[in-house]
């Protein structure tokens, strides 16, 4: 049986082992951002000013897409205050970094910093969490989706990664705009509208064909890269009553050169322990976690994590399980029996039909898991 602990509990035990510089901003990360910005500008100019073979445009689009994603990773770090601390400069640089993904700094800090990090894996409060079976029974579109075969759902879900970040960002804008102080709402609106005004203006300047390669295709690529990480962050982990990053978060592993290009975005458990620390020091945090709580820590290659996502449903059942309600197949989660090398399921007994499950109380269906 594993007792859950808050991220502050872990941080308090690791902090004394870390160098003081690990808790200071690292403005040197901006050099990487500048490099990506120059690459993006060069790509736009090349596509806009020259008539080239479409395959050359395609190659440039791939570079632009990977640059858009990397700028988003740096923007994530900037808006956590780990690069610069002055609020106006933090928001300005964060706005530039998130410009390709059209996400404003005020919205991101409200949605990600102040809500997702505080309420990680809590169904009613985490804007990035996946639903329980009870919520499925109350949402017509979800109920319809989960009547489709698992393989088809997985295919559509993975295809949707190419647009999911942009769609979710727009959803978060509509969800949170009214929660901002009225005097701040105009700036939130401007931060949401201005990037799209810029990108639509670029459409009229370049024309549809070149705009597709300069922005639309790179946006699809950037969404896929960003969501390739985000989709593995928590979706194989259980719902937890206590915000315990070692229980509800997953670190994925990628080649070292990818970590360099992506500002160590793969270190997600470490990020939830120290969101105010530059990701430059997350490898050191990881060493301490694995030496102190090796049995609690979850990590796997990103490829295996994505395969596990393909093979499992995204509806929670009794907090620490995942269920495919169409077939009554129940899968375990990380820390509760999920073996990614041999993903299996248990089938519900006939008496536990979907109708019977849906009628159970919220406390029974959506309950959080305190311990295994």
Automatic annotation (TrEMBL):
Transmembrane segments: 30-50, 56-76, 150-167, 188-205, 211-230
Cross-referenced InterPro entries: FA_desaturase_dom (IPR005804), Fatty_acid_desaturase (IPR012171)
Enzyme category, top tier: oxidoreductase
Lineage top rank: taxon: Bacteria
CDD domains tied to this protein: Delta6-FADS-like
UniProt keyword list: Membrane, Oxidoreductase, Transmembrane, Transmembrane helix
One example GO MF annotation: oxidoreductase activity
One Pfam family cited in the UniProt record for this chain: FA_desaturase
Enzyme nomenclature, EC number: 1.14.19.-
Domain Fatty acid desaturase: 58-300
Keyword Membrane attached: yes
Record keyword Transmembrane present: yes
PANTHER family, sorted: DELTA(5) FATTY ACID DESATURASE C-RELATED (PTHR19353:SF19), FATTY ACID DESATURASE 2 (PTHR19353)
Official protein name in the record: Acyl-CoA desaturase
